[in-house]
Specification:
Oligomer: single chain
Protein name: Molybdenum transport system permease
Subcellular location: Cell membrane
Shape: globular
Pfam families: BPD_transp_1 (PF00528)
InterPro entries: MetI-like, MetI-like_sf, ModB_ABC, NifC_ABC_porter
Number of strands: 0
Order of helices and strands: HHHHHHHHHHHHH
Keywords: Cell membrane, Membrane, Molybdenum, Transmembrane, Transmembrane helix, Transport
Length: 272
């Protein structure tokens, strides 16, 4: 196995790399240095903080479950072989799925309002049934699903596109139904990607801000998630805002640690 040659040292490149690393690391380190550690526990026990954390954990978990139920079948369909006509449709669907990854979250919130608001495309029929989504906890979950599910779909689709279809064909020849093949063969093959996508989806849902505040509002105990509480606390209680930010930073760091093994495994396979 040949080892890759180490790059030659270059002062300009090294200096630019150092500046880039500092630009990304300094704000995070500063957040930890300025955190009110002496009163940290007291700040997190505040009624508003506890309510926001509980709401964030509950809605992010609900959004992740919805993303799993809907996103894994969507990823399977996108990764399946299609005829030329269906391949074009799949390409359009794939583009729509990936749009929330680059779309400004506040634009996503406006789009949700246009779809599910009281005067929206689906909002009017729902209103006729006595249902209203905007500025409710359900709107928080829907906003989180909209911005977070693409992370799950993209990751799982990539894994399914590279799977060994011969195992599925063998199961079909043994009389297994399409659902049995998916459940007992396809899903286990994609399990690592599903697990990684689930964790990433949950973390993204937990940190959602723009679409939530636009579509669900900022009502304490009802729609005020942790990122919204941080934004509001910056105006009245900066220490509480910093403490909440540290909590979110810790969660994101934990997610990166959990996913690190999978990323390293993918890099190893690519290098091999």
């Amino acid at each position: 196995m040949s080892s890759r040659p180490r790059p030659r040292s270059s002062f300009p490149l090294g200096a630019l790399a150092l500046v880039a690393a500092l630009l990304l690391a300094l704000p995070l380190v500063s957040l930890l240095l300025r955190a009110p550690w002496a009163s940290f526990a007291h700040l997190l026990r505040g009624t508003t903080v506890v309510s926001a954390l509980a709401l964030s954990l509950g809605t992010a978990t609900a959004a992740t479950l919805v993303a799993l139920v809907l996103g894994v079948p969507l990823a399977w369909w996108l990764a399946a072989p299609h005829s030329r006509a269906w391949a074009s449709i799949a390409g359009i669907v794939r583009a729509l799925v990936t749009l929330p990854l680059v779309l400004p979250p506040v634009v996503g919130g406006v789009a949700l309002l246009m779809a599910f608001g009281r005067m929206g495309v689906l909002g009017r029929p729902l209103g006729a049934l006595g249902l209203s989504l905007p500025f409710t906890t359900a709107a928080v979950v829907l906003s989180q699903v909209f911005v977070a599910m693409p992370f799950l779909v993209v990751g799982v689709e990539g894994a399914l596109a590279q799977r060994d279809v011969e195992l599925e064909e063998a199961a079909e020849t043994m009389g297994a139904s399409a659902w049995q093949v998916f459940r007992h063969v396809t899903l286990p093959l994609a399990a690592p990607a599903v697990a990684a996508g689930t964790v990433l989806c949950w973390a993204r849902a937990l940190g959602e801000f723009g679409a939530t505040i636009t579509f669900a509002g900022n009502v304490p105990g009802r729609t005020q998630t942790t990122p919204l509480a941080v934004y509001l606390a910056m105006q009245d209680d900066p220490d509480a805002a910093v403490a909440l930010s540290v909590v979110l930073l810790a969660v994101c760091t934990l997610v990166l640690v959990v996913l690190r093994g999978r990323w390293l495994g993918q890099l190893a396979r690519l290098r091999g």
